[in-house]
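Hi R.,

Here's the chain you asked about this morning:
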Amino acid sequence: MSESQQIPEAILRCTEQIPPLPDVVVKVIQLTRDQESNAKELTNVITQDPALTGNILRLCNSAYYGLPRVVSSLSQAIMYLGFYAVRNLVLTCSMRNFYESDRVIYGYNEGGLWFHSVASAITAELICEKLRPDLRDAAFTAALLHDIGQLIIAMSIKDTCDTILDIMEENNIPEYDAERQVVGISHDELGGVVADRWNYPDELIHAIRYHHKPSAAKSPSFLTSVVHLSDSICLQLGYGVEAESMKYQAYDEVLDTLAINRDSIDIFSEQAKLRVEERAPIFIESLNGAS
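And here is the predicted structure, written out as tokens:
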């Protein structure tokens, strides 16, 4: 049975209506998978889309990045931020309008899923700065997109969103189990299917698909564990979330993969609170201006 056949019909119809990624985004993903590609090739592809180019430069010059000088070209942006950071900005810009910050999603307050996603991305970036700096950019993007499946479920079955919350609260179960009972698929499973359909890099698909159950993956993934931890921290801090039943503690196996302990989570939480409150509004405002 294919992944598409496993998706309930109402949700399948919604996913089929989602427009494909723009050609320039697809080409950027392909380029960054090719170890022989270079910054010049990446620049040439992105500049084919003037609007996207302008959006990326606007973000690069925002207070979020705090670059030492104004960036006036993509080649400069790549020089300052790096090859993969610019790729992830391309993905971020391409997904921003899809989220629509005023959309109400079950379990979140108005605009809460977008804020939670941004907060999770900032927290994942922070965690990787301390543990795996080489994964910093990938962690930001994976955490930003980790709940894309929940957005699609809310768009597809608006009349049953309250039912999902009721089942969560009455049975004291996480939202992914309630989703499976109500609509036949959980948001992490659906997110993995959609990310694969969009031809996202494998590491992003894996992190989205297994961010709630890292142990269910065929092999442990540091990036998936980072997304799991950042999601848990931001839910515990209440970023965007309305339903208390959405909150959960990070799993022990995730701590083992990251080689940290519970005390480390407390430290990350305090650091994340400071950074999210400082940077999330700047990032969201800059991205809104770029959309």
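One quick note: Residues 20-99 form one domain.

Cheers,
M.
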